[in-house]
Design brief:
Blueprint (H helix, E strand, L loop, with lengths): L2 H10 L2 H4 L5 E4 L4 E4 L13 H7 L16 E3 L15 E4 L6 E3 L4 E9 L2 E9 L2 E6 L1 E2 L7 E2 L4 E5 L9 E8 L2 E3 L21
Antiparallel strand pairs: 1-2, 3-4, 4-12, 5-11, 6-7, 6-10, 7-8, 8-12, 9-11, 12-13
Length: 198
C-alpha cells in the first residue's frame, strides 16, 4: 500500500480500531510504516512495554477514575502533529460537581496545581505513563504516593460547557495516548465461522 493511502486509511478508522494495533511510525526514507520498536531513531519516542501491551489488546489493568463507570462524552481525538489542536484525552460524564476522582492505577503525584485557568492533578504511574485530570480540586502534594482506587480529589465545574464532566488524559513519555485502552478492551470484534460450516 502506498504511504498516502496507508495514512488516509489509518486516519479514517475509528479510534477504537486505529489504536488497537501496535504502534507504527512512518519512515520517509523507505516510504513504509515501521513498527515503533524497530529502528534506532532517537527523535521518535519509543513506547514502553505497558502501553504496547495495552495497545496490542492485552487485558485492561486500570480502573475507571469515576464510579460508577461514566459515559464517555467526548473521545480521544489526537492531532496529526503535536502543535495542532485536537482532543488529547477523553471527557467523562458525571452527575454533579464534587464527584470523587480516583487514581486509575497506583502511582505518585507529579503535579498538583493550575494550568492556564484550571486545577489539574497528574499522577505518574511509572514506566513513562502519567494520568492527568481536570478540573480537579485536590489536597494532595507532589511526591505523595497514591494507591489504585484512592480518591485524589473532586471534580470542579468548568470543563464541558453544557454538562458536568472530567477530562482524563494519559501520556506515554511525551506522547498522548487513548486513556480508554487502559480500562476497556479496544480490540476489534472478529466474527469466526461456526464449527462444521461449509
Amino acid at each position: 500500500m502506498k504511504p498516502p493511502v496507508l495514512l488516509a486509511a489509518l486516519l479514517l478508522l475509528p479510534t477504537s480500531v486505529a489504536s488497537a494495533g501496535p504502534a507504527a511510525r512512518y519512515s520517509a526514507a523507505t516510504h513504509s510504516a515501521i513498527p515503533h520498536s524497530a529502528g534506532t531513531n532517537s527523535a521518535v519516542p519509543q513506547r514502553n512495554s505497558a502501553t504496547t501491551a495495552a495497545a496490542a489488546g492485552a487485558a485492561p489493568s486500570w480502573q475507571w477514575p469515576l464510579a460508577p463507570r461514566p459515559p464517555v462524552l467526548r473521545g480521544f481525538d489526537p492531532p496529526p502533529k503535536p502543535w495542532l489542536s485536537g482532543h488529547r484525552g477523553v471527557d467523562l460524564g458525571l452527575g454533579t460537581a464534587g464527584t470523587p476522582v480516583m487514581s486509575p492505577a497506583a502511582g505518585t503525584v507529579s503535579f498538583a496545581g493550575v494550568v492556564v485557568d484550571r486545577p489539574v492533578i497528574t499522577i505518574d504511574h511509572g514506566g513513562g505513563l502519567r494520568s492527568s485530570f481536570e478540573p480537579v480540586d485536590s489536597t494532595l502534594a507532589v511526591g505523595e504516593a497514591v494507591a489504585a482506587g484512592q480518591v485524589v480529589g473532586t471534580v470542579l465545574p468548568g470543563h464541558c460547557p453544557a454538562v458536568q464532566c472530567l477530562h482524563w488524559g494519559v501520556r506515554d513519555g511525551e506522547e498522548y495516548v487513548n486513556p480508554l485502552q487502559f480500562v476497556l478492551d479496544l480490540r476489534p470484534s472478529v466474527l469466526l465461522p461456526l464449527p462444521g460450516s461449509p
